[in-house]
Amino acid sequence: MTDETQLAPTTTPVTPRALGRRQWPLPKLADPAAPLLEVDNLTTQFALPSGAVHAVDGVSFRLDYGEALGIAGESGCGKTTTALSLVRLLPANARITSGSVRLYGIDLVPKSENALRRYRWREISIVFQGAMNALNPVQRVQDQIAEPIQERLSVSPRAARKRAAELLELVGIPKKRGSAYPHELSGGMRQRAMIAMALACDPAIVIGDEPTTALDVMVQAQILALLERLRDQLGLSLILITHDLSVIAETCDRVLVMYAGKVAEEGPVPDVFTRPRHPYTQKLLSAFPNIRADRRTLDVIPGSPPDLRTPPPGCRFAPRCPLAMPVCSQVVPPEVTFDGVRVACHLYPAGSSGQPVPVPLAPPIAAAAPDPAGESVA
Amino acid sequence: MTAPTLPADVLRDDAARPRFDTGRNLPGRLVRRPDALIGLAILAAFAVLAIAPDLLVGPLQTAITAEGPRLRGPMPGFPLGTDELGRDMLNLTVHASRISMVIGLLATIITVVIGALLGVVSGFVGGWLDGILMRIADFFLVIPTFVLAIILTSIIRDVVGSGAREVFGIRFGLIAIIIVIGITSWSSTARIIRSQTLSLRERAFVDRARVVGAGPGYIMRRHILPNVINLIVANAVLVFAGAVLTETTLSFVGLGDPFQPSWGQLLDAAREVDAPGLGAWWYFAPPGICIVLVVFAFTLVGGALDDILNPKRRQRR
Amino acid sequence: MGSGYLARRLVTAVVTIALILVVNFFLFRAMPGSPERILGRNPNVTPELLAEKRAAWGLDKPVIPDQLVRYIGSTLQGDLGFSILARGQSVTDVLAQRIWPTIILFGLGEILAIIIGLTLGAYSGWRRGGPVDYIGNGISLLLYSAPYFLIGMAFLLVFASALHWFPTFGMLTSGTGNADLGARLVDFLAHLALPLATVAIGLVGQYAIVMRSSVIETLSEDYVTTARAMGLKEGRILRRHALPNAMLPTVTLIAINLGYVVAGAITVEIVFNWPGLGTLTVEALSARDYPVLQGVFLLLSVAVVLANLVADLVYGVLDPRVRT
Hints:
The structure holds three protein chains of three kinds.
Chain A: E1 37-48, E2 51-63, E3 68-72, H1 79-86, E4 94-103, E5 106-107, H2 113-117, E6 124-127, H3 131-134, H4 141-153, H5 157-170, H6 187-198, E7 205-209, H7 217-234, E8 237-242, H8 245-251, E9 254-259, E10 262-268, H9 269-274, H10 279-286, E11 335-338, E12 341-344
Parallel strand pairs in A: 3-8, 3-9, 6-7, 7-8
Antiparallel strand pairs in A: 1-2, 1-4, 4-5, 9-10, 10-12, 11-12
Chain B: H1 8-16, H2 26-31, H3 34-51, H4 53-57, H5 89-125, H6 127-142, H7 145-160, E1 166-167, E2 170-171, H8 172-201, H9 204-212, H10 216-255, H11 263-272, H12 275-278, H13 281-309, H14 311-316
Antiparallel strand pairs in B: 1-2
Chain C: H1 3-30, H2 35-41, H3 47-57, H4 63-76, H5 91-126, H6 130-145, H7 148-162, H8 181-219, H9 222-229, H10 234-272, H11 277-286, H12 290-318
């Protein structure tokens, strides 16, 4: 569970007005005092013919009203599966085996498919990666935006179309382009359309799964600026999933770093990016070329992520970690919280106050990491 | 300009994966699939029947050598019954395997040779030649080639005459069928090979050959062709199935040769004596079942080959 | 719909028909039963008479362009020559007599096959897996490997001669010409049943297989995942998102298939002695009645080209991406 001393959430009161222009009431079971989203020890398992894979293994985090959380990590670390597990959009061979997902204090995990549908799109919506395929090629864009409004909010087709037009304007698509088909729009426009679709039912949380990966840099900047604006205007909470740390640095308040299905590190963006604690985070950040520093060869992380059918005992990053100690390959590191940051690494054992355990190893990797370390190589 | 946040080794592996299969160890991978195995087993059985029918059932029975009662069902000595001349259906069906399979094989060779040739040249040379060839190919794909085949076959027969001379053990009249099938079926092969040639043409090794000064003929022979061979083989299997079906249908409408009956010709004969109406199922069931089995087997093997050579489609599953 | 798309399709259709006419013309020249050759074999015909006849038929003019133009001209006016077998009846008349039974059999068969095949395929793809799916798929594959006429013969055997549920051949029982309309209609339908079933079943297998794989592929597309994420009802996702996209390859297949279906239809008519263009083809073939054969070829080819055009237009309506 997250520590009480974590940074306090934004202090907006939890009334419908705080949720921006939201015009539809909260679900009946909502607890106004609970945090917006609280995920506790979530575990999602895929049943493959070669064995069970825990793509998400004991992940916990919290999202507060108006906050933007970035989930970072390499391909296959479980970030997308985590997001899809929130609304249970999993393929047939996957299921949530343990943990809870509390939205307004309501646990979504034990709910039946029908009961869960109430929350899809109206509370949590998703902007998928690569909007070319995420839009129905034979349906006009404005109809695709109007569809959830009409179907999920029981609104007349005319009112739905009107609202769709408003949404198009909100995301910066000229009204006459609304009658276009997806293939007639540019990549940036399509992504905007997907964002408009995601906002259709005034959700509390919008999940962006690699929302800018398929776009070029200029358009990327525009989309991120749009997301920022919408956050302010509508009081949206965002979960941004991406492997691109620059996007998280620019847009998010807090960052959650995942590796091989587990949480490596979590905390406010300024803290984690200037003082990464977990060696994996350090490596990720150092692989990011600094535009002002001298040119040097790219710092790569040797090896590849573990096969999740047979994860290594202990810390999953241990085989690739330059600071690995004997205990790392035996015991799973506990999550420890200090200074508003949460880390799962044996460098910070339980009860640590933020000083890493000294490791007799090579000099530190990232220039930003100030940990003292011995000179001799293990 | 975006930060390369993926570890470089992961990025490198991704780029190295080939976009299409180069077909290594094709026979090995083929027999590992159960559907391909079934298909190959069936085809092997029919190949045996086709190669040496005389050894298995004796020479082809004719009206003169027929011994059995006319049009009677299965009985001792005639496990598959007799036709209206008293010939043993088993004998006829096995010999018909040879005719049908050989005609199918020869027609397939002609079709694939024409199709592959035109496909490679068209794809590699491009330009107006490609345009014209593909227009012609599309023409053959659109029109009902069957009616055209009927007309062409009868014209060729009437002009050339159908005597007792044999080529590859097939009488002249049936050669016309082989040629006509070849002329009318090459289009889809050509289109498929052309597609592959187009994508091969853009690859680095072709550019290298050009830079060195190799002529187009050389490049087509030494570089393009070896890389389309696997595709040609996969396509040939399906063409074979189609050729057998086409020959069967052409024979059924009366273009077969009663002296060298194929399965289709047997079915034609069955219809002429009104076998279905008379309940003489043994007359058309054996050739019919053989046709279905053979085409089914080819479809299985062809589908398996297609699966193996198209990894992108494989991923979708 | 973009006029560009429409125009391109029309032009392609016209060019193809033109090619068909040219091919037909050269076939006409090649056919052994050409009138001048027949006349030439007659010992009583003097060289002057032969020359006179050739002039009358326009055969002394050069092949291209004169004869070709003349041929195309007369064809477009509906003059397709005269039937040898039907003793001088114009080919056009002969075709006109035999075309309606084929249209009825073939048209109804296609419609039935489209409705049943697409529905079966969609259901199969939607509820994937399970014994019904595998068995259905296996049967479809087997049916796909069997020539239509074989299926027809099997039906004939089982339902007509063994069970006596249906008559064995023809379109109408002779002698019912004077009965009332109702009885005639029933008689007609009884005769239609088996050949129709044969054509329909032959096609259903193919359409079901393609629709099934199309639906399976569509269901794994991202926009279906989006629709699910939206919480839309499953039925709506299938109807509004999956099916409209899954239909596209199926329409293409139906169009491509038309040429092959013609072969099948001809043979089915033969098996059941259905008095349509198929049986006409076989009669003309055995009598070497080339004018009729060419007339059939022309008619069927043009029909297939036009049907392809219609299919292209339908596709243009269904898929906005090709309209630009």
